[in-house]
Amino acid sequence: MLVTPEIDRRNRRSSRWVAGLVAIMVTSLALLGMPVGHAPGYAAGCLFFGGLFGLGAYWLSRRKCRHRLKVMNRPFPAEWAEILNARVAFYGALNDADKDRFRKLAQIFLSEVRVTGIRTEIDDTIRLLVASSAVIPIFGFHDWDYSRLGEVLVYPDAFNDEYQTDGDDRRILGLTGLASLSGVMILSKPALLAGYSGAFAKENVGIHEFAHLLEQEAESHGLPAEVPYDTVREWIAFVARELKDPQHSRTHINEYGYTNEHEFFAVLTEYFFKSPDTLKQQDPKLYDMLRGIFHQDPASLFGHSRRSPTH
Ligand SMILES: [Zn+2]
Question: Most buried by CB count within 10 Å: which residue of 25, 42, 73, 287?
């Protein structure tokens, strides 16, 4: 997500290749249609248009990278840093260099994904909590994008299958877009806020939904290179064993996780980041597996910090 000098160099190199190929293709196609007798002027025109298309392709291919470099150089508003310090324990526990990285990732996320309130006001706190939910699960990866996500809708409350926030059947706190909701995530505002308080010790709906998105992205684009293959294999085998016999489910895990393998991953992800100490004490092997998947060790992170993960 961040543009390092290496990523920038790689992008320049690949953009030059793309531009060259486009220029050659456009010039060649135009030359194929060259009328007899107009060779010199026509050929020069073909070269000119080929070059123009090549430049356009270079600009398009560099656009995202350049945009991110620009965003990374913007100053981070002091009020935003105060909100992160006050609300996001994960951020508060990071060292200065990692805090800087977290802020840049949050800035990039908010510059590329719209956060929209539906029948409810949203402010910087809500935007930053959405961005934090996106950044926390992928903070251990160095080259990861939520490429499917375009917008996060924030609802005033829990909602039902018809996306209504009134009535007795409201039970959904968050939803990650599939099919008709492709590219969209919905989060209940009170549930999002509760995820960053001590209200629910193991729950964080924002992290839960981004864990779903991470899994969906991984299915289509593959897992980040940092995730060891053996750990993934071990995880898949563990989940299959665990879900085969839900009667013997682990009592410290929210039973909703036993709905299916996707919910199991999302429930364990929020637990891992919200109450890592509890998970590590209850189930050190499971904690180690998740540490391997996310390339992060939140129990040590919070252990080194004087702050509680659920303040
Ligand atoms: Zn879920």
Answer: 287
